[in-house]
Design goal:
About 50% of the residues lie in helices and about 10% in strands. The protein is mainly alpha-helical and about 130 residues long.
């Protein structure tokens, strides 16, 4: 028997999600930002999905951003916060045990003039 224990990184897609997405893997595959029919079809689906998620979490649709990966989401969130609050100072604190997507974003922010303190945390091994 195989047991998968890394659902933090990725997980099996729920069957209902696969069923809902199937048309977009075969019939509606246009770039949602294009102006042609294929783009209009997928663009409508993305708009509806954004609205549905916004309604569920009581947010504005414009506050919902889809990314292609967790690494991209980490990068976007960290950069967005850093930029939004840089008027309050450019000192950021993080830990040394962060995922490379997080750590590399902080390193890049250092090159943009941010001061980054990396607090050493010990990894727990069970």
């Amino acid at each position: 028997m195989k047991v998968y224990l890394d659902n933090n990184a990725t997980t099996k897609v729920d069957e209902e999600v696969v069923k809902a997405m199937m048309p977009y893997f075969s019939d509606y595959y246009g770039n949602p930002f294009s102006l042609h029919l294929f783009g209009n079809e997928t663009g409508l689906a993305v708009t509806e999905a954004r609205q549905t998620i916004a309604d569920i979490i009581k947010a504005k649709p414009s506050e919902i951003i889809f990314t292609a990966s967790g690494s991209e989401a980490d990068n976007l969130a960290i950069r967005g916060i850093a930029k939004a609050y840089k008027h309050r100072g450019k000192h950021i604190i993080t830990s040394t045990i962060e995922h490379p997507a997080v750590k590399n974003t902080f390193i890049d922010l250092m090159e943009d003039g941010f001061e980054v303190t990396m607090v050493h945390l010990m990894k727990m091994v069970l």
